[in-house]
Design a protein that fits this description.
The chain is α+β, with helices and mostly antiparallel strands. It is 53% helix and 9% strand.
């Protein structure tokens, strides 16, 4: 088996760390996995069960693409995907808490191993289109971080922001056109400039410096925006240009329907 590249190892290290960070929230003494989260109808157990479901699907896509395609052929529509996600979350939430935690941890380990084994230049079959192992790992970071935000809200705790959210921000930028298409809006022809201040103080940028359509602000706020975990009005993001302003109302870094708009927390 070929060893993963340095770049893939770095992403997998971040994925492992993001999973560990969420694990530290849910494995403490007295944590009630039946607490409701901001996702309608979902408890903390639903959130973990969903992550387990997607991790298992990722492992299957890496190790047995034909079986993966056969299994997902019936859910390759927005409605089918939504139904499968809800069913997977509900099934896990009915399990005893300790069993769910153990199986979720096993799935996290399995994803790291499966992605590390993808040959250099190989593609992982996935909903929509095949992706490189590094992109799949970044997507798993995004989803783990986003569902971790829901868990933190349920527990009433604040998480320390880390520069791992660059993966979330990068996916958010790269899925700009997807967001417009999802909302049946014309895709802007002009490039966007995105400038974000990282938790470490670094400045992350995408797009040409002279672009007229611009989004600027804290990377943490942008990560909340593109995972649809906070309402745009609650975030310190600035849009210059009408297309950039529209994007802030529809941005999403994930596949499938956008779901309900997050409730405002201020004003």
């Amino acid at each position: 088996m070929n060893a993963p590249s340095a770049s893939l190892r770095a992403v997998l290290t971040d994925l492992a760390a993001e999973g560990d960070a969420l694990d530290s929230l849910v494995s403490g003494p007295g944590v009630d996995l039946t607490l409701p989260t901001p996702a309608p109808g979902w408890t903390i157990a639903h959130q973990l069960a969903h992550l387990r479901w997607t991790d298992r699907l990722t492992i299957l896509a890496c190790r047995d693409p034909d079986r993966y395609l056969a299994l997902t052929s019936s859910i390759d529509t927005p409605d089918g995907l939504t139904a499968a996600i809800e069913a997977g979350a509900a099934a896990g939430a009915r399990e005893p808490g300790l069993a769910l935690l153990s199986e979720w941890r096993d799935a996290r380990t399995g994803v790291l191993e499966a992605l590390a084994a993808v040959p250099p230049g190989g593609r992982v079959t996935w909903l929509g289109r095949p992706m490189g192992a590094g992109t799949v790992a970044s997507a798993r970071i995004m989803e783990t971080w986003a569902h971790g935000a829901d868990v933190a809200d349920a527990l009433g705790v604040s998480r320390a922001a880390t520069d791992r959210i660059r993966h979330v921000a990068d996916l958010g930028v790269r899925t700009r056109d997807h967001a417009f298409r999802t909302h049946l809006l014309p895709v802007p022809g002009a490039p966007f400039r995105v400038e974000l201040s990282a938790p470490s103080g670094a400045i992350w940028t995408w797009g040409p410096e002279d672009a007229e359509q611009r989004v600027t602000g804290p990377a943490l706020d942008f990560a909340y925006l593109v995972t649809r975990r906070r309402h745009p009005d609650d975030l310190a993001l600035r849009a210059d240009g009408s297309s950039a302003a529209s994007w802030l109302t529809i941005a999403q870094a994930f596949a499938g329907p956008p779901g309900a708009e997050p409730a405002r927390r201020s004003g």
